[in-house]
Amino acid sequence: MVETIQWTADGVVMIDQTRLPREAIYVTCKTYEEVADAIRSMVIRGAPAIGVAAAMGIALGYAQGADFDKVCDTLAATRPTAVNLFWGIQRMKDLRASLNGLPEAELRGRLIAEACRIREEDIEICKAIGRNGADLVPDGKTVLTHCNAGALATAGYGTALGVIRAAVESGKKIDVFADETRPFLQGSRLTAWELAQDGIPTTLITDNMAGHFMKSGQFGCVVVGADRIAANGDVANKIGTYSVAVLAKENGIPFYVAAPISTLDLTLAGGDQIPIEERAAAEVTHVHGVHVAPDRIAVRNPAFDVTPNRYVTAIITERGVARAPYRESLARLAGKR
Questions:
Q1: Are residues 23 and 120 both part of a single domain?
Q2: Is the pTM of this model over 0.70?
Q3: What total number of domains does the chain contain?
């Protein structure tokens, strides 16, 4: 399994996801500013993974004597949609507040230990999500996934791909169709690469082919990740997820969302309150640096969309599976310990 992120004596080490699948290169972020740049530029991406990165960035900055509040604010300003980022930051803030008065050296050590603990917990959480979702995957069928919700999007194992991995580990004979996921190509560059490493049979399709193959009857379910889930079960995920969910409902295919409890944002009543990040036009007008659109053309590039809860068959978490009505089932799981 790929090592997405780890703490070392030299700094925060992470695989550079912008260079996959051409080469697997690890970079070392030696300052909290470099961690923030890595999140912003998508060297590291995926909601759980950037939550871990933010926690490690805070520990790194504080260990180097940077102002704690400035470190937290800098990391919080990197990407607006994935709530795990803010969850990780808040967890570090809460720890520091609870340890007020400790000697600085001890406080630095406790923050580093907490960031490492968040990483280890995330791996175990993903494995629990996988176990809870494996039974939902039909044996002998194809699973469609969109974007990358695998080990690369987490500290390890993955959410949506964790469900797929757990189903395979349980003995089920399944294969995967992966949407390429324009414009950043997380499906073709990352998901296809991850599943190939695991030896799980995978077929890559362009995003606009999903409906064509859904009509064939070979898909047993769709499994995707999430970046933020509102109290009513509306789900923000990579752009294009909403289209896949609508197509799945039209074709009678279960649409599952796999995400940790930390991805729930029960302070938001519905998905229309979720902030949607808009990224640079060059991600649309260029592919690997090659210009593929006319000069000076207007571009919109929202990185996420919101799938209304009526299209979501179930939400798989480490604490169990939530089904409609989501306001009740998600609140119950969030309060479970």
A1: yes
A2: yes
A3: 2
